[in-house]
Amino acid sequence: MANIELERLHVRIARSGLCSRRTAEKLILEGRVQVNGETVIEMGIKVGEDDSVAVDGNILSIAKKYVLLLNKPAGVLTTLSDPQGRPTIVQFLPNYGVQLKPVGRLDKDTEGLLMITNDGDIALRMAHPRYGLDKEYQAIVEGIPDEKALDRLRRGVMIEGGKTQPAKVEVVFVEERKGTTSLRITIHEGKKRQVRLMCEAIGHPVIRLTRVRIGPYHLRGLRPGECKLLSQTDVAKLRKLLGMESS
Ligand code: URA
């Protein structure tokens, strides 16, 4: 049988949307998982699409994969719950009966495009520098950076977490009266608070930050708080972009 059609048991459980891979491993070790009616407590075992997998006797179906784009408003946390009761993105997400999670994060005060999915493989690839997609930001910064400062941003600056990789930086417009500049900054990595720290490093702190694009996906047309579901064709295209075979 072609091995390609088999997957490890804990991966299959996670793919059903029930829980993470790590929790699935625990369920197996606790003897709560059955394959074709038999309890399995070995970790390495592989299953095919035709094998029936159950947890506590409940047969798992493979959850449909969803990828959504959300226009996260400023002031909202990129998390599914907050112990302090602050607003989170959860209020904007549809209930598909699966565990949707944000891919990466935007700071509380950053607005714009956030990808949400229940497909753990897509989320993993998106976070990987080799496959991750470009992210484009509109940053309104204090003051008017000169070419020398912009070149520093382009070449890379030292921030917490190391030197940033080369970035594409363009001036969109200068508001002389307000003493602010709108920059378009495209980066490939995703260090914590990267764009804010980059702009701070050249002495032009960010006043407002919006992510306007992730790879081929644009913020255009999405109102703050609005979510858009990618079609299955778009999901297949995304998988291809991330170097995954279509499924
Ligand atoms: N860079 C930042 O500084 N903040 C974000 O939320 C995203 C990128």
Describe the fold and architecture.
The chain is α+β, with helices and mostly antiparallel strands. The chain folds into 3 domains: 6-59, Structural Genomics Hypothetical 15.5 Kd Protein In mrcA-pckA Intergenic Region, Chain A; 67-129 and 217-241, 2-Layer Sandwich (Alpha-Beta Plaits), CATH 3.30.70.580; 134-214, Alpha-Beta Plaits (2-Layer Sandwich). It is built from 6 helices and 17 strands. Strands 7, 8, 9, 10, 13, 14, 15, 16 and 17 form a 9-stranded mixed sheet that branches. A 4-stranded antiparallel sheet has the order 3-2-5-6. The protein has a two-stranded antiparallel ribbon with strand order 1-4. Strand 2 (33-35) and strand 3 (38-39) form a beta hairpin. Helix 1 (9-15) crosses helix 2 (21-29). The radius of gyration is 21 Å and the shape is elongated. The two termini are 19 Å apart. It binds uracil. Uracil (URA) binds at residues 106-107, 110, 193-196, 209. The site of uracil has 8 residues, from helix 5.
Structure at a glance:
With 247 residues, the chain is α+β, with helices and mostly antiparallel strands. It has helices spanning 9-15, 21-29, 120-127, 147-155, 194-201, 232-241; strands spanning 7-8, 33-35, 38-39, 46-47, 53-55, 58-59, 67-72, 101-103, 111-117, 135-142, 158-159, 162-163, 168-175, 180-187, 206-214, 217-218, 227-229. It folds into three domains: 6-59, Roll (Structural Genomics Hypothetical 15.5 Kd Protein In mrcA-pckA Intergenic Region, Chain A), CATH 3.10.290.10; 67-129 and 217-241, Alpha-Beta Plaits (2-Layer Sandwich); 134-214, 2-Layer Sandwich (Alpha-Beta Plaits).
